[in-house]
Amino acid sequence: MSSCTAKNTRVGIIGAGVIGLTSALMLVDAGYDVVIVARNLPGDETTEWASPWAGALLAPHPDTGFNQLQEYSIKKYLELLDHDPRSGVKKLNITEFYDDRGDDSTIWYKSILPDFTSIQSTDLPPGATIGFTYSGLAVDPSMFLPWIRQKLVDRGVKFVRGSVGSFQEMKNLSQASIVVNASGLGARELASDDSSISIRGQTMHVRSQGDFDRAVIRQGSQYTYVIPRASGGVILGGVSQPGNFDVDPDMALRADILKRVNNMTKGEFGWVDIDKDVSRNIVGFRPARKGGLRVEREGNIIHAYGAGGLGYVYSWGVANQVLGLVENHYKAHI
What we know:
Helix content: 25-40%
Number of strands: 15
Largest sheet: 9 strands, mixed
Structural class: alpha/beta
Shape: globular
Distance between the termini: 9 Å
Strand content: 25-35%
Number of helices: 8
Mean pLDDT: 94
């Protein structure tokens, strides 16, 4: 589709999470007229949406599929790192541990990382079976979300605060001929998708002593991580709790998280007093989906949801696929 034609074509996006926002930016840069309708917008601090609270470590995942989308997204964040530091992208060393596999044969991304280095078994934390390090990236949502919103506003994207109960209501409200469903947890009702599920997460933000400039994550039987923030401090996490809808921090869980973090980092956060050094307790609900990510066109609805805790890792890859689906829709209707 030519940009001339595209400029007369409106796309409505439901949801202003990271996938909705990155999709909007790629669409408006391709010449489309974009309207975003969302209950929560960048700057809102509520547990009703996940994007502000994400750890947003750009570590690919070995088991979730859509590897090309993950790889595309990380390359896009690398471009932001080089061209716009205000986006909150930070370069750092990433260390990953797993306790549910005996070797790294499932780690598909080792082939795209020039400095992927295995960790000797004698240097693994207790219980871990494999480990490796590489140069990677993390995003600070408190910087990224305002940055991308301003980019969109500057390009003429319209933001409408509100909830929609159906795709038809969205079409009426936005006057869009095609709608992108980036509604996250809202997809359960909007798309009548019973496989859409909420997974509760809980983390702590601590003001770091010195400059802790690397990320460490352990997966398998547990979900533990340390992620430094470009805006300062460190995120300590976490948990993965499907079906838990408690918006209040579980104060007892904090000691467990800290214990796991110290086990994983050989006591580097032994100085933390959870009653004095935690500047914020964070609860978020990851918009996951049984069967994984959904990116597909259904008539004039494009579904883009179900990323779970990997919204930032998938975001630009999903956005690029959304753009392709929008363009294919219009080619089919020329």
